[in-house]
ATP-binding protein
Amino acid sequence: MLFQNFAGNGEVKRQLSLAFDEGRFPHAVILEGPPGTGKRTLARLLAQAAVCTGAERPCGSCPGCVKAKAGSHPDIYTASGGTAARSFHVEAIRFLRSDAYIRPNEAPCKVYLLFQAQTMSEQAQNALLKILEEPPAQALFILTCVSASALLPTVRSRAQVFTLGPVSEQEAVEAVTAQLPGIDRAAVESAARQWGGNIGQMLESLQDSRLNAALEYVPKIAHALTAPDEMELLAVTAPLIRDKDLLRAVLDRLVGLFRDACVIRAGGSALGGESAAQELAATLTRDKLMALVTETVTARENVERNANAALLVTAYCARLRRAAGR
């Protein structure tokens, strides 16, 4: 099996390729891993290979591959949950159960891609279990989730689990550079450090101007946090009052920064390896760094409660300075 442009995860690719090429691919697989590690990309690649009619699969050029890449293959069915728990409803699984026993339209088999499987309701999982217990010979089920532990043990036991993770920073840089022709390589290298080789997160941040802006704010806030003049932190954060989406993005990044600093302070090495985290770890105690995490998580929750932005940011700055002992 070919894995065009799918970086890293060599052992997972080796196992999948061997099973596929030897005709012993399991009827159900679970691809687990953090957001951005390529679960959907790999799932679609496996689906494409399953409907491919070329000599080497997926060949990328046969009618099956062309339709699969376009999202129009009649034998590939996709369903997904939302971001909320139990948002993957049983109705989608009921359709799958009625459809899976019907012969494929064109391909040798039907493929069912079930994304965000961790959001399946218990009712939906039990409905899926019934078909996994006696799967049709011509059906392949591919589930993606953050962690297979979020699924019922009975569902997990009837599928083979493969765990995906971030790749090396160098592999991530090469993969993202290939997907975004013309992008500044220095920006990609910075994103690789920031996200620890998580290609999905890198692509999102490099293509989202708000996330890029958030990344610029984070080291400035970290520096102002320990500056002698308390007004410096207020000045740096003032623009966030007018842009609540940017405020959310900055707070999300700050949680990561402060956690990285905690890890470094405890003697570990943070994925991002940012100098701002290293400087904070050298300046503040672990208790103070943990307090910064707590205050930032609380501020992030308050944003979702529609708190007054000016009051929220001002109070947050005061609490950060207090938590840092300034």
Summary: Strands lie at 28-32, 76-80, 110-115, 139-145, 160-163.
